[in-house]
Amino acid sequence: MLALRSLREVGSGAIRGYYSERHWLYAVFSSDVHAYALWGMLEVEELRGLLRFWNDSFKTMKAHAILADVRHLTFVSPQAFALLLDYFRSNENQLRKMVLDSCVVHDSTLTGAVAAGFFGITAAPFPFSMTTDMSAAARSLGLSTSDLSEYETRRCVVQSDADVVSRLQHILEHNLLHVDSARLAKLLGFSERSMQRKLRDRGTSLSEQVSHARIERARAILETTGASVTEVAFAVGFRSLEHFSRSFRARCGIALSAYRTTITRSSSSDPKP
After folding, report:
1. How far is it, in rounded angstroms, from Cα 250 to Cα 245?
2. What is the pTM of this model?
3. d(Cα 175, Cα 170) in Å, to the nearest integer?
4. Could you tell me how far CA 190 lies from the centroid of its own chain?
5. Would you say 19 and 9 are in contact if contact means Cβ atoms under 8 Å apart?
6. What does the pLDDT read at residue 273?
7. Residue 139, pLDDT score
């Protein structure tokens, strides 16, 4: 199973391979059977990437069966759940044409129950079944033992690499002011070169991850305190207000001033106890 370089290659449905992002993997066994896996903490931005791929793939793929592997989801944000619900309702006709059969594989945890109950909230636009048995799901869609083995191996490798980003984000939460590449690599259990390679393989870099962690922390401070924008910038490790403003807009798609105004309006409109 090849590591495909772009969603366009996967979307063609003609190449046996896979494409992955931080919390999901899409695999093409043949033009007739595909699979996707979700894991970890699924937030809106991660889900949007998968949904964008689905939309684009409608133009090139033939109708197919799909295996949905959600055994390793640990959290689904309410926003992500609502986004997926809206997607299925808005694209019902297209999904009915594209998906001939499907099987959802979940675990027995609360998150698995949430995933399993999705089609109890909205009607499934295509045939589907649910199980906790991955082997049974694969057989029901015509996948061989070797197909399943290859898929599981690839998913484990990709998920392990993705966990590097999650672990790095956790470490950065407590190291935003003094970022030291060598120290971060040591905390992750890698050499600096290995850390950089693993991040590069995930389509990211240390500087991008540091910026992400700082912006997320800044948003939390802006939403919960009355600290000035300048105070927030320095509190999360930015060396200048200009750099903070530019980075914030690039990542959040909104100017700092507009974001602060939105928060203020939202707070003032909350009902008083």
Report:
1. 9
2. 0.61
3. 9
4. 24
5. yes
6. 47
7. 95
**CA gap 186, 192 in Å, rounded:** 8
Low-confidence stretches of the chain (pLDDT < 50) are: 5-6, 11, 13, 272-273
* The predicted structure's pLDDT at residue 127: 95
Contacts of 260 (CB under 8 A, 6+ apart): 222, 229
Strand order in the sheet with 2-3: 2-3, 17-20, 24-28, 33-42, 64-76, 99-105, 129-131
Inter-axis angle of helices 206-224 and 145-172, to 10 degrees?
A: 60
Q: Given the structure tokens 């619900």, which residue do they identify?
A: 85
In the chain, what are the domains?
2-159 (3.30.750.24), 174-269 (1.10.10.60)
- Nearby residues of 177 by Cβ (< 8 Å), 6 or more positions away: 236, 237
d(CA 208, CA 199): 10
Instruction: Please state the φ and ψ torsions of residue 145, each to the nearest 5 degrees.
Output: -60, -40
